[in-house]
Amino acid sequence: MFNSRNPAFRSPVGAVAAGTPVHFKITLPRDLHCSAARLVVTADATGAEQAAGARLVSGMFWCGMNGDQYEFWECHFTPPAPGLYFYSFSIDTWRGTLAIVRDWGGEGALRREGPPTGLRVPTGLRSPAAQALWQLTVYDPAFSVPQWLRGGVIYQIFPDRFFSSGEAKKGVPADRQLHGGWGEEPDWQPNAQGKITNSDYFGGDLAGIRRKLPYLKSLGVTCLYLNPIFEAHSNHRYDTADYTKIDPLLGTEGDFKELCAAAAACGIRVLLDGVFNHTGSDSVYFNREGRYPGPGAYQSKDSPYYPWYQFKNWPDDYVCWWGFKTLPDVNECDESFSAYINGPDGVIRKWLSLGASGWRLDVADELPDRFLEGIRRAAKAEKSDAVVVGEVWEDASNKVAYGQRRRYLLGGQLDSVMNYPFRGAVLGFLTGTDAAAMMEQILAILENYPPQVVHILMNNIGTHDTERAITALAGEPANGRGRRWQSAARLTPEQRARGLSRMRLASLMQFTLPGVPCVYYGDEAGVEGYRDPFNRTCYPWGHEDAGLVEWYRRLGRLRAQCACLAEGDFFPVAADGDLMAYVRKNESGALLCAFNRGEEPKTLTLTAEWQGAQALFGPAPDARNRLTVPPIGCAVLQAQAERTVSAPKTGDEGFAHDR
Question: Is 609 assigned a catalytic role?
């Protein structure tokens, strides 16, 4: 009856700019004797001109027969303003007034009007699927994002653990605890006071990153994402002490400028981590520990920083991040704080002017809309092609945070987000979760996000906040077990062999799905480990898994050589049992990517367009144009340049899946 992802029923598909006419068509059985049909749209509270919950009803017109047994009804709807709109259809029939609502995969299902019941909703998907309504994301027509990130490769670095130049540093606080050897296990046990302080360091620095630029370039890296580099008194540096200074153990402002200049000479940009929801208690601004001359907000109500914080009972009772007293929350709506961060001489513009190319925003869902909009304005004012990426773990198009629908992707706040839903789909598929559900998770994001956002999604399979990808793929689940167990846990030789095989599949998916792969430092070397601090160990220079590193180099070359990976369309081919396959296609070419997670070979019978296709990874099709994907293996085919590859219209049409 309807499929929101098929242009035969909805054109254009996916998110649209405000003012774009969207054509809707449904096909109904003639024996329903439909006498009237309507498109019913509900405006959401995300900036649409209509009041939240307003129903916008468009009458549909009978427009002809679809064979002998079905008929077409159609209409146009033009969303007037940016926002979210949720829609369904209402039809008058001999059985009464019925609704066509969303079911699995964007398909339509009939039910009587009223609260939805009995619909098949894939596990793990959130509303609007659970509400049985389709979502139409409408963004500002002026919304554009930087082009330089498309088709590239991001590399995430936890600065203390990547590489140490060995250069002497000035002004390093005396209470820093430096490990005696690179590669020792990070401290994880509480100190004598029973606290975990994250105060042990290995001495990785900006000069060390600069020295490893040739290595990063060999991986095809085009952008570095650096975890916080500003002065702070923990090894993770998410407890900022001074936004205007480089942490002395990492180097100086001059070192930062040199890194950005050297990276630019290699074709690599630098993305900084902005932590603006909270500061450290041990900071210039709060100064609870009295490290700085002061006065900080903790020391005096007359401090210029006092209005930044929210005291319940000054000085010891204050709002802090998730209850951590070392991380006092900031009131981002305070004008002086907003000016300090977003003003003409503020933090955002300062570091962009010194060579950075953009910002990744920590806990973006805890930053108010007005503050996010201020960050975007400041970044674009300093550099029109600066990129602003948010940390959002769910579907960012319909995210509800603290009781409020967020409008990250409508054009006034973020350029893109960290794409944790794709991580869940990749790792879920490879560890046995239903393939169709994982493909649905991918397709839902592609349907809901503006296309310009999709092209620069930060696709990760591991970060500083998750277990290492190889551990997630092959290790025993931690299941809530603590740091002592995680410290002792290692992959067995059999688990590691399986993990390395799965890492090849996971990374190839990461590099070929829409968006930009973001490699967490050391993943390409086979580094394993559970959560903080075991996922933040030192890069194993001289002890890497050489085969896996070379695999990542091949992936980097694939990204550089195949334009369809920069902004090509995505077409699902198969998602059943142990097999997942899809096509990436644009005007210049196409790739067919197939993955087999199982222990037995899987075969796809291809259409004529793929006859003689070049095998870039894995086997080529046989003489009968059958592609056999090996166990725990993959295949990537590139269509011959002179052929025009027609991707399947829906589902896996055009491809026969031999189970």
Answer: no
